[in-house]
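assembly run, all chains below
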Amino acid sequence: MNSVNTWTTTQHFWLIVLGFFVAFVPRYFPLLIFTKRKIPAWFNEWMKFVPVSLFTALVVKDVFIDSNYQLAPMTHVPELLASLIVIIIAYRTRSMSMSVIIGLMAAFLIAMVV
Amino acid sequence: MGALTVTYLTAGFLMEELFLTKQVRNPNEPLWLSTLRVAMPLNLSYIPIGLACGILLHAAGFNTLLTALVSIFIFSGGAQFMIASMLTINAPLLSIVLMLFFLELRYALLGSSLSRYLQGQPHRFIFAFSLSMNDENYAVNYLKFATDKKWDGHQALMVEHYSLLFWTVSNVVGSLVGSALKINLSIVNFALTALFLYMIVMQIKSRLTVLICVLSGFLAAFFMILTKSTLGLVISTLIASFIGFALEHYITTHTPKSRWLWKVRGPGSRKDAVEETDSN
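ok done. output:
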C-alpha cells in the first residue's frame, strides 16, 4: 500500500495534539473529581456495572457492527465462532492468556476455512 | 505472519506456564517482576495488534516518530485504528478529532468506576494515571482491584506503563516494517475482543449480571447504529449500568431472595476469584 493521504507531517502533528486533548479530558477530569471528594454509595453501586456493560458493548462493536455502523454479523463469522470458544475457555480456565491465545488461534483457523 | 504467530503463541504459552499459575504473590519477588507477570498477557496481546496498528499508520502516511508519539500520547488501539482509516479516506481534521472525542468519551466511565480504588492519591499520581489509562489496562487493573486486596495504585500505574511500553514498541516496529508484513487486521484485532470477552466472563457474578450483559449488547448495537458513531458505546454503557444498579437496588430491597441474585456457577463466583470489596 502506498501512502494515500496527502497530509503533511505538520498536519499529522496537530492531529496528535488535538487527539491528545480529546482523549485526555475524559480520562483525567472524572478520575480527578471522583477521587478528591466523597463518592456517594449509590454512585459506586452504579459504577460497579460499568465494566461488564462497557466490555459487552465493545465486543458487540467488534463482532456485530461493521465500519459503517451497520449490523453485519455475517461479515464476522470467524470472530463470532471464536467468541463462543473464548467464552468457554475463559469460563473453564480463568486464564487471560489462554483465552486470548486460543481465541486468536481459533479466529485465525476459522477464517482460513470460512 | 505465520512464523510470527507461532513465536507469539509459544511465548504466550511459556508465559502462562512460567508466570500465571501462581495467584498469590511471592513475597521474595521484586514488585516490578510480580506486576510484570500480571501485565504480561496484555503485553503479549499488544504485540500483534501494535504491529498491525503501526503498519496501518505507516500506510496512512504517518512517519515513525509520529507513530511513536501517537502511541504514547493517545495510547488507544481503537483511536489509532480510527485515525489510520479516516486518514486513508481523507477525512478533514476536525471531523477526525470529533470522532476521536466520541470514541474516547468512554474513558470518563473508566475513570469514574476506578475512582473508589484510588481515593486519596496525590494529584500528581492521578495525572500520571489518567495519562496512560486505556480500556485494556483498565480491564486488568479493575479485575486486580476487585479480587486482590493488596493491589494498589502504584502497581496499577506500573501495569499501565508496561502496556504502554509494549504498545509503543510494537507500533514503532510495525511502522518500520511497513507494508513488508501482511496482516489480517480483523483477525488480529480479535485478540482485544477475546480479552474483553474474558473480562466479561470474570465479571459475571449473578444472574442479574448476565441479564445486564445481554441488555448492554442490544443497547450497544442499537445506539451505535442510531448515532452512526462510537458515541453509542457511551450511551449504551450508561443506560445498561444504570438499569443494572436500579434493578439490583430494587431487588435487594423488595425481594432479597429473588432468583436474579443467585450466584452463577463459574469463575467469577468463586470466593478466591472475587471478594466484593465493600470495605472501601
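Chain A touches chain B through 82 residues (CB under 8 Å).

Chain A is about 75% helix and 0% strand.

not gonna interpret more than that til we talk
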